UniProtKB/TrEMBL annotation:
Pfam families: HTH_20
UniProt key word Transcription: yes
Species this protein is from: Streptomyces violarus
Signal peptide segment: none
Protein name: DNA-binding transcriptional ArsR family regulator
Domain of life: Bacteria
GO MF, any single term: DNA binding
UniProt keyword annotations, A-Z: DNA-binding, Transcription, Transcription regulation
PANTHER family: TRANSCRIPTIONAL REGULATOR, ARSR FAMILY, TRANSCRIPTIONAL REGULATORY PROTEIN
SMART domains: HTH_ARSR (SM00418)
Domain spans labelled HTH arsR-type: 13-107
InterPro entries: ArsR-like_HTH (IPR011991), HTH_ArsR_DNA-bd_dom (IPR001845), HTH_MetalResp_TranReg (IPR051081), WH-like_DNA-bd_sf (IPR036388), WH_DNA-bd_sf (IPR036390)
CDD domains according to UniProt: HTH_ARSR (cd00090)
Length: 116
């Protein structure tokens, strides 16, 4: 049995077969969450929450990460005191082939058009 301190550091994630298309699309419909996913996709490996410089409050940032995690778009794990974030690219590609790449490509083209 694990101690309460250890189990409280574990974050719930949907299993691969529990990820639903409508939840993924909802999670990626918000500009801040899409920005987080674009940064994760552009990087190699996991990034800490503090890496992201979003123009919103800390509580709003926490909400965005929770929506992404609960929808199955990202996986969050603690490394020491840092919460690390990784894109669940393989899971999403297996369930919805081409979707993530198409959304990231479209978001990149839009950002180029809008200067962001």
């Amino acid at each position: 049995m694990t101690s309460p301190a250890v189990s409280s550091r574990s974050l719930p994630h949907p299993e691969c077969d529990e990820i639903r298309l409508e939840d993924v699309l909802h999670a990626l419909s918000d500009p801040m969450r899409l920005r987080i996913v674009r940064e994760l996709a552009a990087g190699s490996g996991e990034l800490s929450c503090s890496h992201f410089d979003l123009p919103v409050t800390k509580s709003t940032t926490t909400h965005h990460f929770r929506v992404l995690r609960e929808s199955g778009v990202i996986r969050q794990v603690y490394q020491g005191t840092a919460k690390m974030n990784g894109l669940r690219r393989d899971d999403l590609e297996g369930l919805f082939p081409g979707l993530l790449d198409a959304l990231l490509d479209a978001a990149g083209r839009q950002a180029g058009r809008l200067g962001g």
